[in-house]
Specification:
Blueprint lengths: L11 H14 L4 E5 L2 E5 L10 E3 L7 H14 L5 E4 L7 H7 L2 E13 L12 E6 L4 H10 L4 H12 L5 E8 L2 E11 L2 E9 L8 H15 L4 E7 L3 H9 L3 E11 L6
Parallel strand pairs: 9-10
Antiparallel strand pairs: 1-2, 2-3, 4-11, 5-10, 5-11, 6-7, 7-8, 8-9
Helix pairs in contact: 2-3, 4-5
Protein backbone atom coordinates (compact mmCIF):
# COMPACT_ATOMS: atom_id res chain seq x y z
CA UNK A 1 0.00 0.00 0.00
CA UNK A 2 1.33 3.42 -0.97
CA UNK A 3 0.12 6.82 0.19
CA UNK A 4 -2.23 8.97 -1.90
CA UNK A 5 -0.14 11.24 -4.13
CA UNK A 6 -3.04 12.89 -5.97
CA UNK A 7 -3.09 15.97 -3.76
CA UNK A 8 -1.65 19.32 -4.81
CA UNK A 9 2.13 19.34 -4.48
CA UNK A 10 3.27 21.40 -1.46
CA UNK A 11 5.81 24.21 -1.37
CA UNK A 12 9.03 22.28 -0.71
CA UNK A 13 10.84 25.30 0.74
CA UNK A 14 8.00 25.80 3.23
CA UNK A 15 7.99 22.11 4.09
CA UNK A 16 11.72 22.21 4.82
CA UNK A 17 11.32 25.37 6.92
CA UNK A 18 8.62 23.75 9.03
CA UNK A 19 10.40 20.40 9.34
CA UNK A 20 13.55 22.13 10.53
CA UNK A 21 11.56 24.00 13.16
CA UNK A 22 9.82 20.79 14.18
CA UNK A 23 13.20 19.17 14.87
CA UNK A 24 14.24 22.17 16.99
CA UNK A 25 10.94 22.32 18.86
CA UNK A 26 10.78 18.62 19.73
CA UNK A 27 14.40 17.49 20.00
CA UNK A 28 15.56 13.93 19.86
CA UNK A 29 17.98 12.67 22.49
CA UNK A 30 20.29 11.41 19.74
CA UNK A 31 20.47 12.05 15.99
CA UNK A 32 22.44 10.17 13.35
CA UNK A 33 22.90 11.95 10.01
CA UNK A 34 23.02 9.85 6.84
CA UNK A 35 23.05 11.54 3.42
CA UNK A 36 20.21 14.02 3.94
CA UNK A 37 18.28 11.88 6.43
CA UNK A 38 18.04 12.44 10.18
CA UNK A 39 17.71 9.25 12.21
CA UNK A 40 16.26 10.67 15.42
CA UNK A 41 16.10 8.65 18.63
CA UNK A 42 14.55 9.32 22.04
CA UNK A 43 14.20 5.96 23.76
CA UNK A 44 11.04 5.21 21.77
CA UNK A 45 8.92 8.09 23.11
CA UNK A 46 6.86 9.78 20.33
CA UNK A 47 7.20 8.88 16.68
CA UNK A 48 8.46 12.27 15.49
CA UNK A 49 11.55 11.96 17.70
CA UNK A 50 12.08 8.26 17.00
CA UNK A 51 11.88 8.00 13.25
CA UNK A 52 14.11 8.57 10.28
CA UNK A 53 13.09 11.82 8.56
CA UNK A 54 14.32 13.43 5.32
CA UNK A 55 15.59 17.02 5.36
CA UNK A 56 17.85 17.44 2.32
CA UNK A 57 18.11 15.72 -1.08
CA UNK A 58 19.67 12.28 -0.75
CA UNK A 59 21.44 9.82 -3.03
CA UNK A 60 20.44 6.85 -0.90
CA UNK A 61 18.40 4.17 -2.61
CA UNK A 62 15.35 2.82 -0.83
CA UNK A 63 17.12 -0.45 -0.12
CA UNK A 64 20.12 1.34 1.42
CA UNK A 65 17.91 3.50 3.63
CA UNK A 66 15.89 0.51 4.79
CA UNK A 67 19.10 -1.27 5.78
CA UNK A 68 20.39 1.76 7.75
CA UNK A 69 17.09 2.38 9.51
CA UNK A 70 16.56 -1.25 10.42
CA UNK A 71 20.12 -1.76 11.69
CA UNK A 72 20.59 1.46 13.65
CA UNK A 73 17.19 1.57 15.34
CA UNK A 74 17.40 -2.06 16.34
CA UNK A 75 20.85 -1.41 17.79
CA UNK A 76 19.30 1.40 19.86
CA UNK A 77 16.52 -0.91 21.03
CA UNK A 78 13.86 1.14 19.21
CA UNK A 79 11.28 -0.05 16.70
CA UNK A 80 12.51 0.93 13.21
CA UNK A 81 10.32 3.72 11.84
CA UNK A 82 10.45 6.22 8.99
CA UNK A 83 8.51 9.45 8.35
CA UNK A 84 7.64 9.98 4.70
CA UNK A 85 7.26 13.70 4.08
CA UNK A 86 7.29 15.61 0.78
CA UNK A 87 11.08 15.93 1.28
CA UNK A 88 11.60 12.20 0.68
CA UNK A 89 13.19 11.40 -2.69
CA UNK A 90 11.04 9.76 -5.37
CA UNK A 91 10.79 6.01 -4.93
CA UNK A 92 11.58 5.94 -1.20
CA UNK A 93 8.00 5.40 -0.06
CA UNK A 94 7.49 2.74 -2.72
CA UNK A 95 10.64 0.93 -1.58
CA UNK A 96 9.43 0.74 2.01
CA UNK A 97 5.97 -0.35 0.85
CA UNK A 98 7.49 -3.05 -1.34
CA UNK A 99 9.53 -4.30 1.61
CA UNK A 100 6.37 -4.75 3.66
CA UNK A 101 6.55 -1.63 5.84
CA UNK A 102 3.01 -0.52 6.64
CA UNK A 103 1.57 3.00 6.82
CA UNK A 104 0.29 4.40 10.09
CA UNK A 105 -0.37 7.80 11.66
CA UNK A 106 -1.16 9.79 8.54
CA UNK A 107 -0.76 13.38 9.71
CA UNK A 108 -1.57 16.88 8.52
CA UNK A 109 0.69 19.87 9.17
CA UNK A 110 -1.48 22.99 9.39
CA UNK A 111 -0.65 26.70 9.57
CA UNK A 112 -2.54 29.84 10.54
CA UNK A 113 -1.54 33.46 9.89
CA UNK A 114 -0.96 35.73 12.87
CA UNK A 115 -1.13 39.05 11.00
CA UNK A 116 -4.01 40.32 13.11
CA UNK A 117 -4.35 40.44 16.85
CA UNK A 118 -5.41 37.06 18.23
CA UNK A 119 -8.80 36.93 19.86
CA UNK A 120 -8.96 34.59 22.84
CA UNK A 121 -11.77 32.12 22.26
CA UNK A 122 -13.19 29.22 24.21
CA UNK A 123 -14.36 29.07 27.78
CA UNK A 124 -14.15 32.29 29.78
CA UNK A 125 -14.09 30.07 32.86
CA UNK A 126 -10.70 28.72 31.81
CA UNK A 127 -7.48 30.53 32.68
CA UNK A 128 -4.15 29.78 31.04
CA UNK A 129 -0.83 30.08 32.85
CA UNK A 130 2.36 30.16 30.73
CA UNK A 131 5.81 29.33 32.08
CA UNK A 132 9.22 29.60 30.44
CA UNK A 133 10.46 26.34 31.94
CA UNK A 134 8.78 22.94 32.36
CA UNK A 135 8.05 22.43 36.04
CA UNK A 136 7.82 18.96 37.48
CA UNK A 137 4.10 19.60 38.01
CA UNK A 138 3.74 20.39 34.29
CA UNK A 139 5.57 17.20 33.26
CA UNK A 140 3.53 15.07 35.67
CA UNK A 141 0.23 16.66 34.71
CA UNK A 142 0.93 16.54 30.98
CA UNK A 143 1.96 12.89 31.17
CA UNK A 144 -1.28 12.08 32.95
CA UNK A 145 -3.38 14.03 30.43
CA UNK A 146 -1.63 12.23 27.56
CA UNK A 147 -2.10 8.90 29.41
CA UNK A 148 1.61 8.12 29.21
CA UNK A 149 3.25 5.13 30.82
CA UNK A 150 5.73 5.76 33.64
CA UNK A 151 8.77 5.33 31.35
CA UNK A 152 7.34 7.86 28.90
CA UNK A 153 6.93 10.42 31.67
CA UNK A 154 10.65 10.31 32.37
CA UNK A 155 11.56 10.67 28.69
CA UNK A 156 9.05 13.52 28.26
CA UNK A 157 10.82 15.42 31.02
CA UNK A 158 14.18 14.91 29.34
CA UNK A 159 12.89 16.01 25.92
CA UNK A 160 11.19 19.22 27.07
CA UNK A 161 14.16 20.11 29.28
CA UNK A 162 16.41 19.96 26.18
CA UNK A 163 14.39 22.46 24.08
CA UNK A 164 16.68 25.43 23.42
CA UNK A 165 14.42 27.72 21.35
CA UNK A 166 12.02 30.00 23.21
CA UNK A 167 9.15 28.03 24.72
CA UNK A 168 5.95 28.62 26.69
CA UNK A 169 4.58 25.72 28.73
CA UNK A 170 0.82 26.11 29.13
CA UNK A 171 -1.42 24.86 31.90
CA UNK A 172 -5.18 25.43 31.70
CA UNK A 173 -7.13 25.83 34.93
CA UNK A 174 -10.87 25.65 35.59
CA UNK A 175 -12.00 26.31 39.15
CA UNK A 176 -8.31 26.39 40.10
CA UNK A 177 -7.86 22.81 38.92
CA UNK A 178 -5.49 21.96 36.04
CA UNK A 179 -7.41 20.48 33.12
CA UNK A 180 -5.10 20.89 30.12
CA UNK A 181 -1.51 21.15 28.97
CA UNK A 182 0.45 22.14 25.90
CA UNK A 183 3.44 24.12 24.73
CA UNK A 184 4.29 26.75 22.17
CA UNK A 185 7.74 27.08 20.61
CA UNK A 186 8.87 30.16 18.66
CA UNK A 187 11.57 29.88 16.03
CA UNK A 188 12.36 32.51 13.37
CA UNK A 189 8.88 33.84 12.74
CA UNK A 190 6.87 30.71 13.50
CA UNK A 191 5.23 29.40 16.65
CA UNK A 192 4.66 25.65 16.83
CA UNK A 193 1.92 24.25 19.06
CA UNK A 194 2.74 20.86 20.53
CA UNK A 195 1.24 18.15 22.72
CA UNK A 196 -2.10 19.89 23.23
CA UNK A 197 -4.29 17.86 25.56
CA UNK A 198 -7.11 18.36 28.02
CA UNK A 199 -8.48 15.93 30.56
CA UNK A 200 -11.51 13.85 29.48
CA UNK A 201 -13.86 15.81 31.74
CA UNK A 202 -12.79 19.12 30.17
CA UNK A 203 -13.14 18.06 26.54
CA UNK A 204 -15.76 20.00 24.64
CA UNK A 205 -15.89 22.79 27.23
CA UNK A 206 -13.76 25.30 25.32
CA UNK A 207 -10.74 24.88 27.58
CA UNK A 208 -8.68 23.60 24.65
CA UNK A 209 -9.59 26.57 22.45
CA UNK A 210 -8.60 28.91 25.25
CA UNK A 211 -5.19 27.27 25.53
CA UNK A 212 -4.57 27.24 21.76
CA UNK A 213 -5.48 30.88 21.22
CA UNK A 214 -3.45 31.88 24.29
CA UNK A 215 -0.39 30.17 22.81
CA UNK A 216 -1.05 31.79 19.42
CA UNK A 217 -1.26 35.19 21.15
CA UNK A 218 1.99 34.47 23.00
CA UNK A 219 3.71 33.48 19.76
CA UNK A 220 2.57 36.63 17.97
CA UNK A 221 3.82 38.77 20.89
CA UNK A 222 7.20 37.04 20.47
CA UNK A 223 7.56 37.83 16.79
CA UNK A 224 5.74 34.95 15.10
CA UNK A 225 3.85 35.70 11.89
CA UNK A 226 2.53 32.14 11.50
CA UNK A 227 1.39 29.37 13.83
CA UNK A 228 1.68 25.69 12.93
CA UNK A 229 0.68 22.37 14.40
CA UNK A 230 0.30 18.70 13.51
CA UNK A 231 -2.83 16.59 13.74
CA UNK A 232 -3.60 13.00 12.85
CA UNK A 233 -5.83 12.46 9.85
CA UNK A 234 -8.26 10.42 11.96
CA UNK A 235 -8.69 13.13 14.62
CA UNK A 236 -11.66 14.77 12.93
CA UNK A 237 -12.78 16.78 15.98
CA UNK A 238 -9.36 18.38 16.41
CA UNK A 239 -9.07 19.10 12.68
CA UNK A 240 -12.46 20.83 12.75
CA UNK A 241 -11.46 22.88 15.80
CA UNK A 242 -8.19 23.96 14.22
CA UNK A 243 -10.05 24.93 11.07
CA UNK A 244 -12.36 27.17 13.07
CA UNK A 245 -9.29 28.80 14.62
CA UNK A 246 -7.88 29.68 11.20
CA UNK A 247 -5.59 26.74 10.48
CA UNK A 248 -5.41 25.14 7.04
CA UNK A 249 -3.35 22.14 5.85
CA UNK A 250 -0.08 22.81 3.99
CA UNK A 251 1.30 19.28 3.68
CA UNK A 252 0.92 15.80 5.01
CA UNK A 253 3.19 12.96 6.03
CA UNK A 254 2.87 9.40 7.19
CA UNK A 255 5.00 6.94 9.10
CA UNK A 256 5.96 3.43 8.12
CA UNK A 257 7.04 0.56 10.31
CA UNK A 258 8.11 -2.95 9.52
CA UNK A 259 5.59 -5.72 9.96
CA UNK A 260 6.66 -8.23 12.60
CA UNK A 261 6.50 -11.10 10.15
CA UNK A 262 8.30 -9.29 7.34
CA UNK A 263 11.50 -11.00 6.15
CA UNK A 264 13.16 -7.63 5.39
Amino acid sequence: MTADTSRTLPDIALVRDLEERLFNAWPALQTIYIDGWLLRMADGHTKRSNAASPLFPSNLTGEELIRHVRTLYRKAGIEPMVRITPLASPGIDEAFAGAGWTIYDETHVMTAPLAERIKLTGSTEASVVLSEEPSQAWVEGAAEAYEFADWQREVLGRIVASIRVETAFATVYVDRQPVGYGLGVTDRGYVGLYDLAVTPAARGTGAGSRMITSLMHWGRSHGAHTAYLQVRDTNLKARALYGRLGFSPVYGYHCRRQQAASPV
